[in-house]
Amino acid sequence: SHHCFVVRYREGEDLGLDMHVDDSEVTFNVCLGFEFSGAGLQFCGMHGSPDHRKQRFTYGHRPGRCIVHLGRHRHGADDIESGERLNLILWNRSSAYRRSREFQSPEYRREEGVPDETCLSYTHDRDYGVFKSYPVGKDAF
Q1: What are phi and psi of 13, to 5 degrees?
Q2: Which of 46, 71, 82, 117 is 20 to 30 A (C-alpha) from 55?
Q3: What average pLDDT does range 16-24 have in this prediction?
Q4: Is the dihedral of CA 68, 16, 63, 5 positive or negative?
């Protein structure tokens, strides 16, 4: 199955997106456009791996381009600095894979070392406040 939606980042509104994993096996993320600066897509390790909070690379969106990644690849959008960006997101799911033992009982391994600040999530990491101050208005998470 699949799930499709559009996200908009605009200066003064939705600036960025906290680190997360997707509810998909494979995600297609298409930049539909407009002029913007900032709003890079940060990638960290794979969910459940010892390096899931270690920064791996930054992808710079360009209108008309698509990035494809595994849904369990931890990622988040940096704040937009100016302009507006629209992205079409397509989550692809496999019912056969979701019935598998690998999906239903995934292997989780202990984290290695201190996480990179870029890879911390104020909505998903219980220890966020140990490593970084909460963003204004987000300390209730």
Answers
A1: -120, -120
A2: 82
A3: 92
A4: positive
